[in-house]
Write a structure and sequence with these properties.
Number of strands: 26
Largest sheet: 7 strands, mixed
CATH superfamily of the largest domain: HAD superfamily/HAD-like
CATH class of the largest domain: Alpha Beta
Number of helices: 23
Radius of gyration: 32 Å
Bound molecules: adenosine-5'-diphosphate, magnesium ion
Strand order of the largest sheet: 14-26-25-24-15-22-23
Distance between the termini: 39 Å
Helix content: 40-55%
Oligomer: single chain
Number of domains: 5
CATH architecture of the largest domain: 3-Layer(aba) Sandwich
Shape: elongated
């Protein structure tokens, strides 16, 4: 499977976008095709069929519907390095060129509309000079409407009767036919003015969002044969040395081997405080070096870097459409034909009944329906709202993997936290050891524990190995088995070592003492005999208590789950003000707790760190992983990824989703409400064509502007 991304520059009409999407989906050999209107990007996958042929076919579909759109290949994943390098560059410059071209285009359109409007006003003021009036109005009509007329001509030839260009043309012809020439001109002028400003608003937010995501590094300075060379990030290999100077973006993840600097990580984490790094510290690609030169040893290739992962996450986000978006797309498909059908009925039935005496009057009323038969306001503003929400979230260091998850987040009523690494730092520290009252020495306890835990990745295991300070000889370990939620059993040269919690030892038939302290205890036994315990401490995160208070204050049910023992869990919960605690759980028990809540009809956000809770994350209504910058498992399994490990981000994420949902709902209610009202009034002769023009153009514009508010919302 190869993925192709096409850029459709100048795509301004949302209903055309839907048509392009639907038709291109039917091309043979194309799969997973989506058109992201808000960013003018069409993405698809294909296998055997050559992409050139498919792109040609898509291009012809696009040009048939929207002749002004420029189709270009933006990116082609999984190609040779040089290839993608070329594309990245053409993309960058292409963007500037595009802005420029668009500016010219804007000016031309603006002049055209300005002149049309002037002619229109002249037409309205020259009633006493019919010849002048007619000429001015006719000129205004052609100047503003020729594009719509041409497009509708092309579309009828293809049998597209429900195309809004065609309907606008019919509406204006009808108005001319009954002598309402100013109305006919107004339909065209305001339709075009509306489109113009809508384009402008959409382009503005597109730009605002892309600049938010503009974290792609252009180049890397790498050491090759004693020379510093400038290459693309894709050309750098693992283990290479790269140098980054002040003002430059760090192109790849790695570790500082010399130098020190402050780094701006805000593009990744939403955190505005600069982060300091010196020799030995890890750095993240996408951060900007502020005030020192650093040399970094590269830890992974570009494709696996933080920045590449974030970009691919966000780029794919709009492909997962929210239920509301899907509803609107479906709705739009039926709305136009239904409205046109009513218009026809309104024109024909009363006229037939009255023997065509009042035909003009009913025709006028029917034309009102035609003018508002385009669902443009919704088709543009709803996806734009969700996209702005995702953009806003990512500016705050919250990656939402799809509009569907953003919408789901707004329905949450229960937030369940994992304890370790989520509410606590997950950085364990042994602060005490207990020895069995036998002949065992502290050195023996440390030796046994380090052998048992050496191969475990569990943070507690690591803290024990660190604490002992022993260099383990792997030859001494014959075999090791880890039981999640329990501990480990290792076959070693000194015998069978069991390390873990009370439950774990009990299962092996070993009794461990009940030590009185509110911390986690890892007990160690050798050959079936208990020899001692490590008392382990974990710190509660700084803003955890505050975040939980805020969530509870806002009416959310908050619970905590942990595999840790009861006493430790209760101590943490009490400090944080969490009333519902489930402790001593195995990972599968955590899964059941969450599923049970969901079965009770609750909408559950589960917040975890991805270490052994990936299934729980995947099973929740919305799975949120935290501090996930380094952890692939967590990013994979969750729907929302918090770039920093602050629990307060949860509240922010929910607030952004609610704001998005509110604005989207406002738009739907407002747009449909206005249209229905005008139609109802129109049926009984109380609304005019002018009002219909407002309901079409004005409403679309207001809805789009309303959507852009999501982008500027401060959670
Ligand atoms: P949490 O739910 O807090 O993330 P886990 O499910 O990872 O905790 O682990 C639960 C308990 O199992 C730990 O508190 C610890 O007692 C025990 N445990 C898990 N893995 C290990 C290990 N490698 N060594 C010792 N104890 C372990
Ligand atoms: Mg855990």
């Amino acid at each position: 499977m190869e993925k192709v991304i096409l850029k459709l520059d100048g795509l301004g009409c949302a209903s055309c976008a839907t048509k392009i999407e639907n038709r291109s989906k039917n091309i043979k050999g194309v799969s997973n095709l989506t058109l992201d209107f808000a960013r003018s990007r069409l993405t698809f996958e294909h296998d055997e069929t050559s992409s050139e042929a498919l792109i040609k076919e898509i291009e012809s579909i696009v040009l048939a519907l929207e002749p002004d759109v420029k189709v270009s290949l933006q990116n082609k994943a999984s190609k040779g390095r040089h290839h993608s390098h070329d594309h990245d560059h053409t993309h960058d410059h292409g963007d500037h060129g595009h802005t420029h071209g668009e500016g010219d285009h804007d000016v031309k359109a603006l002049v055209r509309l300005g002149v049309s409007l002037l002619l229109f006003v002249i037409g309205l003021l020259t009633e006493d000079y019919p010849a002048v009036q007619l000429t001015a109005l006719f000129a205004a009509y052609i100047l503003s409407g020729h594009k719509v007329l041409l497009r509708s001509y092309r579309n009828i030839r293809r049998g597209e009767v429900f195309d809004e260009n065609f309907l606008m043309s019919i509406a204006s012809f009808g108005a001319i036919a009954i002598g309402e020439v100013p109305e006919a001109v107004a339909v065209m002028i305001f339709y075009e003015i509306g489109e113009y400003f809508q384009d402008l608003a959409v382009n503005r937010s597109k730009k605002a969002i892309s600049s938010l995501l503009n974290i792609r590094p252009d180049q890397a300075t790498v050491l090759r044969n004693d020379d510093w060379l400038t290459v693309t990030p894709e050309e750098v290999l693992m283990g290479d040395l790269i140098r980054i100077k002040p003002g430059e973006r760090i192109p790849l993840d790695g570790t500082i081997i010399s130098g020190s600097t402050n780094m701006d990580t805000s593009a990744l984490t939403g955190e505005s405080m600069p982060r300091y790094g010196e020799e030995g510290d890890d750095v993240l690609s996408g951060s900007v070096v502020l005030n020192g030169i650093i040399t970094v040893k590269v830890a992974s290739v570009y494709a696996e870097s933080t920045v590449a992962r974030i970009l691919s996450l966000v780029e794919n986000a709009t492909a997962h459409k929210a239920p509301t978006e899907n509803f609107i797309t479906k709705f739009a498909r039926y709305y136009t034909p239904i409205v046109v059908f009513f218009a026809a009925g309104l024109i024909l039935i009363p006229s037939l009944l009255s023997g065509f005496e009042t035909f003009d009057q009913w025709l006028y009323r029917g034309l009102i329906f035609l003018v508002i038969s385009c669902p443009c306001a919704l088709v543009v503003s709803v996806p734009l709202g969700f996209f702005s929400g995702i953009g806003n979230a990512s500016r705050n260091g919250i990656l939402v993997k799809g509009s569907n998850y953003l919408e789901a987040l707004s329905t949450i009523d229960t937030v369940i936290f994992d304890k370790t690494g989520t509410l606590t730092e997950g950085k364990f520290e042994v602060y005490h050891t207990h020895l069995a009252p036998d002949q065992f020495t502290d050195a023996y306890l440390k030796h046994a524990a380090s052998l048992a835990e050496f191969h475990s990745n569990h943070p507690m295991a690591k803290s024990i190995v660190d604490y002992t300070g022993l260099t383990v000889n792997p030859e001494e370990i014959i075999n090791m088995k880890e039981l999640s939620g329990h501990g480990v059993i290792a076959e070693t040269r000194i015998g069978t070592v069991v390390a873990g919690n009370h439950k774990h030892l009990e299962k092996q038939g070993i009794k461990a003492p009940d030590i009185q302290s509110p911390y986690t205890h890892i007990h160690i036994a050798v050959n079936g005999r208990y020899i001692g315990t490590f008392d382990i401490r974990d710190r509660i995160k700084k803003d955890a208590a505050e975040a939980i208070k805020a969530l509870r204050g806002a009416g959310y049910e908050v619970a905590m789950l942990t595999g840790d023992r009861r006493r430790t869990a209760d101590a943490v919960a009490e400090e944080l003000g969490i009333a519902i605690v489930h402790s001593e759980l195995l990972p599968e028990d955590k899964y059941s707790v969450v599923q049970k809540k969901i079965a009770e009809g609750r909408k559950v956000a589960f917040v975890g760190d991805g270490i052994n809770d990936a299934p729980v994350l995947a099973g929740a209504t919305v799975g949120i992983s935290m501090g996930a910058i380094g952890s692939d498992a967590a990013i994979e399994a969750s729907d929302v990824v918090l770039m920093t490990d602050e629990p307060s981000k949860i509240g922010k994420a929910i607030r952004i989703s609610k704001k998005t949902k509110t604005i989207v709902t406002q738009n739907i209610v407002f747009a449909l409400g206005t249209k229905l009202l005008i139609m109802a009034l129109g049926t009984v002769g109380l609304s005019s064509m002018w009002m219909a023009i407002f309901a079409d153009v004005g409403v679309a514009l207001i809805a789009v502007l309303n959507s852009t508010r999501v982008l500027h919302f401060k959670p």
